[in-house]
Amino acid sequence: MNDGSADHFDHGGFEDRDERDDKDDRDSKGERTDDWESRDDGIRGKDGQQEGYGPPDGPANGGDRGQDPDQPPRIPMPRASVEDGGRLLPAPAALRDPAPQPAPLVLEHPVLKSLLGAWALAACSPDETAAVEEHLGDCGSCADEALRLRGAVGLLHPPESLDLDPALRTRVLDGCLDRRPPRIPVPEWAAPYDAETARLDALLQDIGDAEWHAPVRLRWFEGEGPTSRRTTVAGVIAHLLTVDGLVAVALGLDDPLGDVAAEGPSPGARTEAYWRTSHFPPTRSVRAPWRDQTHDLVRTVSFAGGSSGSARLAVSYGEFELPLHDAMLDRAFECWVHAEDIAEAVDYPYEPPSARHLHRMIDLAARVLPTALAQRRRTGLASPTHGRHLVSAGGPGRSLRLEIEGSGGGEWLIPLDSPAAVGSAEHEVAHIALDGVEFCRLAAGHVSPAEAAAGQVGDREAIKDVLFAAASLSRM
Questions:
Q1: 54 to each of 40, 42, 43, 50, how far by Cα in Å?
Q2: Which residues contact 366 (CB under 8 A, 6 or more apart)?
Q3: Which of 95, 329, 376, 433 has its CB 3.0 to 4.6 Å from that of 455, i.e. a possible disulfide?
Q4: R_g of the chain, CA atoms, integer Å
Q5: Are residues 364 and 382 in contact, defined by beta-carbon separation less than 8 angstroms?
Q6: Measured distance CA(59)–CA(402) in Å, rounded
Q7: CA 356, CA 340: separation in Å to the nearest integer?
């Protein structure tokens, strides 16, 4: 409507209400009354004083609107921060008033002596342990008794290694196979390779990505002294892949080098070719083809079994050949040696092979020693001895008794004059005694002939020649 009712609503309704509110706030003299007075009227005491608020006309109750400069402000100002004032923060309550420390436990000598047994078993309370150990520093007789008791506890609880026994896998498999023989068994001469590759694969499964690039130094003996080649953990697995490929090629399997041309068929030449043609340094990706190849080798020789064809098969290493049976033992030996190299690089515990497998590896080294000795003589690295004489093939000749002690041990008579001769106890001129693992490390080039801990009796020249020939079995 446009008849002015809207103006009446706007000016009449709100203005009348404001006037009424203004009148309600005035006192009898027509002045405004502070809201604090009207609200405070309801909490006055019987004597007209406000309870807890002071006089009704005081500044706190609106009686005096002027602010007294001597009085604190009606609304407190915000407190200044301690940090803004540049003063030190107050110390925590725990530092201002530290809790009292308990007094040390004081015990008499007989009581402390009676606690020595419990202390040796680590069965004392912390207070008793502290009291006993403080007493041991002052009492010599109790200290001797405590040392004796602690030694007895050590005998009761001998320390046990948390690492698995390397022979555990073999025992478990033997127990399973005794109950149910495999349809296609792994030949006895291939079992060491099967076991050592499985152990190395378990080690590789435990290490992280960064450890695949840990530096490893491959060591072997060449000529008259040691030599080495620096690589990584992944590079070692690539080396094993390429050298195992020699056996794979002999069995008709794929060559891991593929189309890569190596300078020669030797293990070192094949490894250098693989490293050289890799676009990037080998990483943990090399584990899969190496593991697959080991499975293929074991599966293939298992199918071949003891057939006459596998017995005649030879594996070429370039400068020499080995029968398939011996080549598989050779690969098992190198797998263990390089697994120890990797374990040392990544600080991983690693045990030698089982005694049965170690004996087979030592036997292979002892059988090829006469050939290695003859090769060194042909190259002038081993001087002929005064008592050397030629013998017919299969005839007895001068011999050295090689005694291997410990795990995988035994005795071998090594012919000194010719690889075709037969070792004879009647013609024994020298005797060497070595620990089994020590001999294997000598044959791997990890121990020099001069440092090998060998017991020696007899012809010194023959002993030296045999030790150096054992070291010359090593290669990259």
A1: 11, 14, 12, 6
A2: 402, 412, 414
A3: 433
A4: 47
A5: no
A6: 116
A7: 19
DSSP assignment of 33-68, as one string? --HHHHHHGGGB-TTS-BTTTB-TTSGGGTS--SPP
Q: List the chain pLDDT tens, one digit each, 476 residues.
A: 444 444 444 444 444 444 444 444 444 444 444 443 444 444 444 444 444 444 444 444 444 445 565 665 566 665 555 455 556 555 555 455 555 666 777 888 899 999 998 998 888 988 899 899 988 888 989 999 999 988 888 777 665 665 666 677 777 877 776 677 777 888 999 999 999 999 999 999 989 999 999 999 999 998 888 999 999 999 999 999 999 999 999 999 999 998 888 888 899 999 999 998 887 778 889 999 999 999 999 999 998 876 656 767 899 998 899 999 999 999 999 999 999 999 999 999 899 999 999 999 999 999 999 999 999 988 888 876 555 666 777 788 899 999 999 888 899 999 998 888 888 899 999 999 999 999 999 999 999 998 887 789 999 999 999 999 999 999 88
What is the pairing mode between strands 396-405 and 422-435? parallel
Burial class (CB in 10 A: 0-12, 13-18, 19+), 24: exposed
Nearest to 323 by CA among 304, 336, 346, 296: 304
**How far is the C-alpha of 302 from the C-alpha of 97, rounded, in Å?**
80
Per-residue tokens: 424: 């004879």
Q: At residue 434, what is the residue type?
A: L
Tokens of 350: 């690693």
Alpha carbon distances (Å) from 144 to 60, 149, 376:
83, 9, 60
Chain mean position to CA 419: 45
Q: Which residues contact 74 (CB under 8 A, 6 or more apart)?
A: 59, 60, 67
Cα–Cα distance list, 87 to 77, 78, 324 (Å)? 20, 18, 87
d(CA 460, CA 449): 13
The tokens 């008033």 sit on which residue? Answer: 97
Q: Are 472 and 365 in contact (CB under 8 A)?
A: no
Which backbone phi and psi does 315 adopt, to 5 degrees?
-110, 125
Instruction: Check residue 26 and report its DSSP letter.
Output: B
